[in-house]
């Protein structure tokens, strides 16, 4: 190819079906990226294991659920390669290799890891796999020779650490065997939960699943956090931190009308019922077809599995070629 | 098979050719084990990397050197499977899996690791791969379903940690997918260096290589540490800590005569020259044929490589079957 597309790697831990927060934060971008980039979507079941050895059933059963979500929102397996981490041995091989090129102290300094250790209250009993996962992510990224990685703001240090490892490998090899990586932090911030909490999460019970029924959507919109001080319709209301407007920002195709509604809401005279009715309609219009496609596909899980299997085979060839190339460049023994 | 042989795994880091200390401590046992056990010999280039990223050339060039040593002393590739760690992806896969079943604190408590961190003066800058190597060894061992592991006294904690991981895997799976392991600590202690230091090592310059020439052997015996207080032949001499007697214990086939010589030496009247002459003869007789076979084989490295390649292919099938079995037992996703 004279002008190969840049390679992008994203993916999801297979710990639960995806929700509209995933759509706003990443899936929507992936629909664009699959046209402009060579895109790999990693079903990260091994990474999910790092803090889910107590619930492997969950990690397993969500492999096809997440794949279903991808296909339901319009990921095209001809344009994007959907692949399963635990069936790609070269990722583990590169991980084990990279662990020799990073110190324990450096892993412990990684702000993302430090924050997550704190949040999960691991203390000293952090699983070794969890401490090592920046090296595993470096393996995932470099195995595909990805150069573009969409990440949340809090994950930028992972990319920094990946580039450190890449530079150490290239320096040791004496040639540029791995390209450095650029983090792309999406403009759209993180979608809040319906209760206004910063993080939308199934386990926090504040998410709207991509598979939500019409009734579930309406119920979620009804109980959605707006402006607790906006008691009477004629009072001025606040738009910032108002979940309904955050969702309208993310999903309403008529952004001019959203801006107009914001103005009215701020002035006073626009009730929550009106904006919620609009959001309900917007979400129903968006999620209806997604739900229908998902339901249709879920009746043919053999097809979904075939998509993942074929993607994994494609990914296997690519990642094994990278492992061979890296070990050769480093000067490890090769059979002649 | 109605009575399958027990499986034994041993091997060597590929950081240098082997010496007579390796022979006395392990190779000799392997010649017996290959008759009674299903024996796998792992050329541990990935483990060698954990503290040799600065000298990968050494790790690489010694792969065939160690294999040559095996064949030269009589390891039979029809009876023992010689295989290369970096070409066995399932070892890395199992390692990454096991890292989720062991905490960082537990790895840091491992006495072998603590001692080696201290000895290597890593401090906080210990490579993550080095901290994680007990999990990697558990992967090596279990991948072959080995139940018998010959180890030095200082490595017993590694086996303990392996069994901890095995029990966690079996408990999580709810069935005995991996057999527990027994450490075999050889009766023959560690052979001292020719200068009397406890450890024989090429890098310490106190070793006799299996490939040593006749002159090198004689020179080594001549400068060998005996009893520094045994200045005159008629003085009583000390046998304990006397390297010549340690080597006669290890290599002289006439142990009755060695005991007789020890008595004479202790009484006084037996000179160092006499016992050194005897040891020189013993070592020449032992190493002559080894050196000749080694020289012959080194002229046909294609054959040596073929032995390692075929062993690695055999090992690949076995270890990949284990990975599939373990992930299935744990309930990770499997393609139907």
From TrEMBL, chains A, B:
A Pfam family matched in the record: tRNA-synt_1b
GN (gene name): trpS
Keyword ATP-binding (UniProt): yes
Keyword Glycosyltransferase appears in the UniProt entry: no
Species of origin: Kiloniella laminariae
EC number: 6.1.1.2
The family this protein is said to belong to: Belongs to the class-I aminoacyl-tRNA synthetase family.
SUPFAM superfamilies associated with the record: Nucleotidylyl transferase
EC top class named in words: ligase
InterPro entries noted in UniProt: aa-tRNA-synth_Ic, Rossmann-like_a/b/a_fold, Trp-tRNA-ligase, Trp-tRNA_synthetase
Protein name: Tryptophan--tRNA ligase
Keywords: Aminoacyl-tRNA synthetase, ATP-binding, Ligase, Nucleotide-binding, Protein biosynthesis
Molecular function in Gene Ontology: tryptophan-tRNA ligase activity
Spans through the membrane: none
Gene3D superfamilies listed in its UniProt record: HUPs, Tyrosyl-Transfer RNA Synthetase
Lineage, uppermost ranks: Bacteria, Pseudomonadati, Pseudomonadota, Alphaproteobacteria, Rhodospirillales
């Amino acid at each position: 190819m004279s002008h190969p597309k840049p390679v992008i790697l994203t993916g999801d831990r297979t710990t639960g079906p995806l929700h509209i927060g995933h759509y706003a934060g990443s899936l929507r971008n992936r629909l664009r990226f699959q046209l402009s980039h060579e895109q790999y979507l990693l079903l990260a079941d091994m990474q999910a294991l790092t803090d889910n050895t107590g619930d492997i059933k969950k990690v397993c059963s969500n492999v096809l659920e997440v794949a279903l979500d991808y296909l339901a929102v319009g990921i095209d397996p001809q344009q994007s390669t959907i692949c399963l981490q635990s069936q790609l041995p070269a990722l583990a091989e590169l991980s084990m290799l990279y662990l020799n090129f990073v110190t324990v102290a450096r892993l412990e300094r990684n702000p993302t890891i430090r924050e997550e250790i704190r949040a999960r209250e691991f203390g000293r009993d952090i699983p070794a796999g969890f401490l090592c996962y920046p090296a595993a992510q470096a393996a995932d990224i470099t195995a595909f020779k990805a150069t573009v990685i969409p990440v949340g703001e809090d994950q930028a240090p992972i990319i920094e650490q990946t580039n450190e490892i890449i530079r150490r490998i290239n320096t040791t090899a004496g040639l540029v065997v791995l390209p450095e990586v650029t983090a792309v932090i999406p403009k759209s911030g993180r979608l809040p939960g319906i209760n206004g909490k910063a993080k939308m999460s199934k386990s926090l019970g504040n998410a709207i699943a991509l598979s939500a029924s019409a009734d579930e959507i309406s119920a979620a919109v009804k109980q959605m956090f707006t402006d607790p001080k906006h008691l009477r319709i004629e009072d001025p209301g606040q738009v910032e931190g108002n979940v309904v407007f955050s969702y309208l920002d993310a999903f309403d195709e008529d952004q001019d009308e959203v801006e107009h509604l914001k103005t009215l809401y701020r002035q006073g005279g626009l009730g929550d019922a009106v904006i919620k009715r609009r959001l309900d309609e917007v979400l129903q219009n968006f999620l209806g077809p997604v739900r229908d496609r998902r339901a249709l596909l879920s009746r043919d899980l053999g097809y979904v599995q075939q998509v993942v299997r074929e993607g994994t085979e494609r990914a296997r060839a690519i990642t094994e070629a990278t492992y061979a190339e890296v070990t050769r460049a480093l000067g490890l023994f090769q059979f002649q």
